């Protein structure tokens, strides 16, 4: 599914930080620090100064939290479904261009997966698990679109940053429930931001617009036929 992920169109130029390393692993001594640590006459003092500098330096704590499994998100979006069948969505060049045009500007995306939600052999809708950048790391969320094209409330599966996790609130996620079409997914007009979580709100909303555009271009005929 990686080939479906849209290219970022917000003009991002900064690299996405890798938070797998601790602050101590990322720290490298400068010239003055090296002089203290290599001078035999100042050895113990040098280490003391270096350690004091590390202790005093601000450390950004990044909390990576997983809230829901894919299976739990599927059942939350379509509780009556008795089968979730993963599918591969293939787009030709014209369809890709159409999706991009409908969805509008996009933040960086990472992985996308999709499933048919079935009930008694009938199509109930589709579940998408997508990842979009927040401020510096990716947010994993799930969206459901029923067979008529109506959105369900979003589910946040994983949030990996120290700020902006308020998008998990019921009030924000349920703004998406019942919306139908891209004309009802405008940032601030339809989907309100949360103070302190502006980028997370805007980027997830943009991601949902992309999923709705994908459904309209590639999946709506199948849904309409039941």
Note down, in words, how this protein is organized.
The chain is of the alpha+beta class and 226 residues long. The protein folds into two domains: 23-56, no CATH class; 64-224, no CATH class. It has helices at 23-26, 31-38, 43-56, 70-77, 93-103, 170-173, 198-224; strands spanning 65-66, 83-87, 109-119, 122-133, 138-146, 155-159. It starts with 22 loop residues before the first helix and ends with a helix. 31% of the residues are buried.
Question: Which features does this protein show?
Answer:
alpha+beta, 2 domains
In short:
The chain is α+β, with helices and mostly antiparallel strands and 226 residues long. 34% of the residues lie in helices and 19% in strands. The protein folds into two domains: 23-56, no CATH class; 64-224, no CATH class.
Please describe the topology of this protein.
Elements: H1 23-26, H2 31-38, H3 43-56, E1 65-66, H4 70-77, E2 83-87, H5 93-103, E3 109-119, E4 122-133, E5 138-146, E6 155-159, H6 170-173, H7 198-224
Antiparallel strand pairs: 1-6, 2-3, 3-4, 4-5, 5-6
Helix pairs in contact: 2-3, 5-7
Secondary-structure element series: HHHEHEHEEEEHH
Distance between the termini: 24 Å
Q: Strands of the biggest beta sheet: in what spatial order?
A: 1-6-5-4-3-2
Mean pLDDT over the residues? 79
Give the number of domains: 2
Percent of residues in beta strands: 15-25%
Query: What overall geometry do the principal axes of the alpha carbons give?
Result: globular
Main sheet, how many strands, which sense, barrel? Answer: 6 strands, antiparallel
How many helices? 7
How large is the radius of gyration? Answer: 22 Å
The poorly predicted ranges are: 10-55, 57-62
Helix content: 25-40%
| DSSP strand tally | 6
> What class would the helix/strand composition place it in?
alpha+beta
């Amino acid at each position: 599914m990686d080939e479906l992920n849209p290219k970022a169109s917000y003009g991002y130029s900064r690299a996405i930080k890798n938070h797998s390393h601790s602050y101590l692993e990322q720290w490298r001594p400068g010239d003055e620090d090296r002089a203290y640590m290599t001078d035999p006459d100042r050895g113990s003092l040098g280490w003391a100064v270096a350690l004091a500098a590390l202790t005093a330096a601000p450390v950004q704590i990044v909390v990576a939290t997983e809230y829901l499994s894919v299976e739990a998100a599927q059942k939350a979006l379509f509780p009556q479904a008795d089968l979730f069948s993963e599918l591969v969505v293939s787009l030709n060049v014209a369809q890709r261009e159409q999706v991009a045009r409908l969805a509008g500007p996009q933040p960086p995306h990472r992985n996308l997966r999709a499933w048919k939600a079935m009930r008694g052999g009938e199509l109930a809708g589709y579940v998408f698990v997508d990842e979009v950048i927040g401020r510096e790391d990716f947010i994993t969320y799930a969206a459901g679109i029923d067979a008529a094209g109506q959105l369900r409330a979003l589910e946040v599966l994983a949030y990996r940053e120290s700020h902006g996790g308020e998008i998990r609130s019921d009030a924000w996620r349920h703004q998406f429930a019942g919306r139908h079409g891209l004309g009802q997914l405008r940032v601030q007009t339809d989907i309100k931001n949360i103070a302190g979580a502006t980028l997370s709100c805007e980027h997830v909303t943009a991601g949902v617009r992309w999923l709705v555009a994908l459904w309209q271009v590639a999946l709506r005929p199948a849904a309409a036929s039941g």
